[in-house]
């Protein structure tokens, strides 16, 4: 059911030259988004659309109809009460998925089958098997898919990558970070619910592991070589606090502590043979980055967000879709699958099992 809004007139698409980097208004890509899962983070996405010229929220679909209607009243959009209706809406060009984790894969598969490009909140799926199915369907259908790891497109993360690629700190040997905050135990929260694929590994571990993988890929290390993990489980049985060490074949290690039960400084430091780069707290939303080369004065850059930080990933996805790309070079499907497999393996080691596995 379309309750409001009408399809836009056809618009000219920008050239493939838009692909790759954040566009900063230089190359607006018109796109009408359909949003599935109008909860907390979906508000940030809807808000960011106002900072992306040409992109707008066209329609929403959610769990409880009253919630979807309230959301669409605040962020003006049509409301559909069934996923099939949203996917069949000719006024929707692309789908953003922001439901709890266990629902991501089925919604992504349905969207890809409907020929709609997908930007899916992290993690792409609750298990590696589900993630493989979704990535496989993207290849079959030839439709764009990206895990919404928004941090990779932030100016601070782009600066980090530029310094790494320029060899400013030499070969990376150690990555260290924390992602910890206090979240009182609540059996009703999706974060603690096994049936909703809760736990720290899938909710916040993906940021840490994905950052480490991205850093190491800048120096040609493609795959994780192995890991050590220890942790504490919540009363519901999901992972509450995890200490993880990742190894690469060349000898580099990444050490992260992630938890819902403690606070920490939440910075990330990348140590190389010639220096250190720090993504200042919170590393996943950092606006400040420091380069410290041995024997030289440190250099700190303030890199504020243009809006709320989601605008960069929306622009990156829109540019890929306009260019007919099936994946974004900054978040290739292989990276998503590698982190999904790592998360699965860590959960198994910790004894966490979801009821649907
Ligand atoms: N990128 C980031 O910074 C960031 C931050 C937080 C979360 N996230 C990710 O965003 C996702 C959602 O998290 P959240 O905290 O926003 O969750 P949330 O507040 O619980 O919102 C989830 C929304 O999905 C709806 N929903 C549940 N099952 C659905 C289904 N099968 N089909 C359609 N809609 C469904 C819910 O409906 P009701 O209204 O009926 O409950 C609710 O509106 C997760 O993947 C999470 O990891 C990302």
Overview of the structural elements:
With 357 residues, this protein is α/β, with parallel strands linked by helices. It has two domains: 16-151, NAD(P)-binding Rossmann-like Domain (Rossmann fold, 3-Layer(aba) Sandwich), CATH 3.40.50; 155-304 and 338-350, Dihydrodipicolinate Reductase, domain 2 (2-Layer Sandwich). Helix content is 31%, strand content 22%. The chain is built from nine helices and 14 strands. It has helices at residues 40-49, 65-74, 83-88, 104-113, 128-141, 155-165, 200-217, 310-322, 333-350; strands at 31-36, 55-61, 78-79, 94-97, 118-120, 145-147, 172-180, 226-233, 239-247, 253-259, 268-272, 275-279, 288-293, 299-302. It has an eight-stranded mixed sheet, with helices on one face. It has a six-stranded parallel sheet with strand order 3-2-1-4-5-6, sandwiched between helices. A hairpin with an 8-residue loop joins strand 12 (275-279) and strand 13 (288-293). Helix 5 (128-141) packs antiparallel against helix 9. The chain is globular, with a radius of gyration of 20 Å. NADP nicotinamide-adenine-dinucleotide phosphate (NAP) is lined by residues 36-42, 61-64, 67, 98-101, 103, 121-122, 148, 150, 190, 203. Belongs to the Gfo/Idh/MocA family. Keywords: Oxidoreductase. This is Dehydrogenase.
């Amino acid at each position: 059911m379309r309750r409001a809004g009408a399809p836009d007139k056809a618009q000219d698409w920008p050239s493939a030259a838009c692909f790759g980097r954040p566009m900063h208004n230089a190359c607006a890509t018109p796109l009408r988004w359909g949003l599935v899962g109008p909860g907390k983070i979906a508000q940030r996405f809807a808000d960011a659309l106002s900072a992306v010229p040409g992109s707008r929220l066209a329609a929403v679909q959610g769990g409880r109809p009253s919630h979807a209607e309230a959301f669409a009243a605040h962020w003006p959009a049509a409301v559909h009460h069934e996923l099939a209706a949203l996917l069949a809406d000719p006024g929707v060009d692309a789908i953003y998925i922001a439901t709890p984790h266990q629902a991501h894969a089925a919604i992504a598969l349905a969207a890809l089958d409907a020929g709609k490009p997908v930007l899916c909140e992290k993690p792409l799926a609750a298990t590696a098997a589900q993630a493989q199915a979704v990535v496989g369907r993207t290849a079959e259908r030839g439709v764009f898919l990206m895990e919404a790891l928004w941090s990779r497109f932030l100016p601070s993360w782009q600066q980090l990558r530029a310094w790494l690629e320029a060899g400013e700190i030499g070969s990376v040997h150690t990555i260290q970070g924390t992602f910890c905050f206090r979240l009182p135990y609540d059996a009703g929260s999706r974060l603690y619910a096994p049936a909703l694929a809760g736990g720290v590994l899938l909710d916040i571990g993906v940021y840490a592991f994905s950052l480490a993988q991205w850093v190491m890929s800048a120096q040609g290390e493609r795959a994780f070589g192995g890991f050590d993990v220890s942790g504490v489980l919540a009363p519901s049985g999901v992972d509450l606090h995890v200490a993880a060490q990742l190894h690469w074949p060349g000898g580099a290690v990444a050490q992260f502590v992630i938890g819902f039960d403690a606070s920490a400084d939440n910075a990330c430091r990348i140590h190389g043979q010639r220096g250190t780069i720090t993504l200042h707290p919170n590393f996943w939303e950092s606006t400040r980055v420091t380069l410290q080369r041995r024997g030289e004065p440190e250099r700190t850059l303030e890199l504020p967000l243009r809006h709320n930080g989601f605008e960069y990933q929306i622009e990156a996805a829109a540019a890929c879709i306009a260019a007919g790309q099936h994946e974004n070079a900054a978040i290739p499907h292989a990276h998503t699958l590698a982190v999904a497999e790592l998360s699965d393996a860590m959960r198994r080691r910790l004894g966490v099992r979801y009821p649907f596995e």
